Each structure stands twice: as C-alpha cells, then as structure tokens.
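hiii, so i know i said id send this last week but things got crazy w the move. better late than never?? heres the sequnce for the chain we talked about at the cafe, plus the structure i predicted for it. fair warning i was half asleep when i ran it
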Amino acid sequence: MMRKTAEIDSILLDLNHSIDAHYKWLVKMFRCMVSSDVTQVDISGQNSHHACQFGQWLNSRLAQDDEDDSYVSKINAAHEQMHLLGKELLLAIVEERSQSWHFDRFQDALLAFTSAVMDYKIYLLNIRSNIDVLTGLPGRRMLDESFDQQLLDTKSLNMYLLILDIDRFKYVNDNYGHLVGDVVLRTLASNLLSWTRYDEVAYRYGGEEFIILIKTKTDEQACQAGLRLCHLIGQKKIPYPEGEISITVTAGITRVHQGETLDTALGRADRAMYEGKQTGRNRCMFMDEHEQVTLVSTNDRITTRV
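okay and structure toks below
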C-alpha cells in the first residue's frame, strides 16, 4: 500500500528525533566511561538496544509490518551491533584493558548504523519525490521504476494493468474552469485510494489518466474489479463550491505476463480503452494476449466480444 506525503513526513520527523536522541546516548556513554559507571540500562544492559529511545522507535516501526521492513530490519541489526560493541568498549576502558581494535570495531559499527539510516531516508525521500503533487497518488515515475519488481513479486497471483480515463474531461475544464478540473482530479484520486483494495494500487499516469495495478487469480476477478471501480466513479458526485459534478470513466484492462515491459502491457490496456471510447464511453474493456477486446459486464464470466 502506497504512503501519503504526510505519513512519510511523520516517519522522517520521528526518525530525526530518534537520531538526535542517539547522539545524546553517545555522549552519555562517554560520561559513563569517565565515571566508570557500568550500571546504565541503555548503555550496558543486556538489551540496551531496546532500552534507548532509538530502540523504542525501531520497535514501533517493526511492529507495523510495512513494505519498508527490509530497511528497518537492517537498521535494527546495525543498531544492536553498535550497542553491543559500545558496551564492549565501555567495559574494556573501565577495566583498563582497551585495545585499538575495540575503538575500530565500535567505529565501524557506528558507520554501518549511519549507512543503514541513510539508506532508509533515501528510500523514503525517493517515494515522496515520486508522489504526484496535485492528487497525492504515486506518479508515473514510481510506476516505471517499480513495475518490473512488482511483476516478479506477484507469486501465486496474476497482475493486471487497468488504465482509466475521465470521459470528456475537456468539457469540464472548458465549462467549469481548470480549478474545478483540479478538484475533479483530486477527488477522484482520493476516492480511488478509498476504493482500491489490498492488492490494488492506484497511480496518476498523466492528465486525466489513472492506472491501477491489480493482483488477483483470474481474468474474471480482475475485470470485475475494474468494473467495480468504474461503477463507483460513475455513482459518486463530486462537490465543488457552486454545486456538484458527475463524471464517468472509460477503462481498459489486460493481464501482464512475466517478462513483459510496462510499455507492452500499457499498450494493450490503452488500445482496449480506446475501443471503449469509440463504442460509447463509460465502460470497462478487457484485451487478452491475442488482442481480442471484450466488454466487461456484470456477469460472472466475460462473454461479449467487440
């Protein structure tokens, strides 16, 4: 599930505060060395990496089971190692048996921890920079960069690409103005975030076009997911300062096969959508690998060929 900018900002803010607290932890360790105090739980305790403020932040992130678990787990391992070697250095100094390698190992652990944190920050900032400013949805660049990996990660499910285009959007801009047009785009994006399910991710691909990647088992299930979204969009009126606007969309959907590029799958879905535009709009069309276009209906099976 894709994150909103506010959520990313909140994670980064909490991360920065926790890093600041860890600088204070480092100074506290120096004080313990000077005073020969080996009783501080967050310095020399058996689970000191859990007791410090940064460890508490890590525990809260790991408990959330998010898509960035690999980054947080890497930080967690580096953080634990840093605490372990910091305690080892403290005891060696207090017991007057420290060697240069004690300092070298702790230094390496600090650098590994800093590197892991930086990798996570870059990951979050990269996501944030790829979010469409107007709608808050992930944008075209994010789809381009993540598509191949998402296809590999489908596992036991199939992946489908749905492209939808607002019908007669130029009419909205010409008759209501571009500010109202922006309201329509933002509201549709917000609705898509609410209406898409766990294995469905929405993107703003450009202009009035949106893409949803759907992971499911069969063509019928994917097509019914596309039809559900089209119906929800058509039924939901969009408020603006002077009233309400109703919109419809035309959608094209196709199954993405392993090894296919985004452009190949998008081309099929786009041709299916174009067929829907040419035959009346306000509909969802399916194109198979043989370029056969089908009108999606509310029936369990797709039977109508165009």
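btw The mean pLDDT is 91. thought thatd interest u
miss u guys!!
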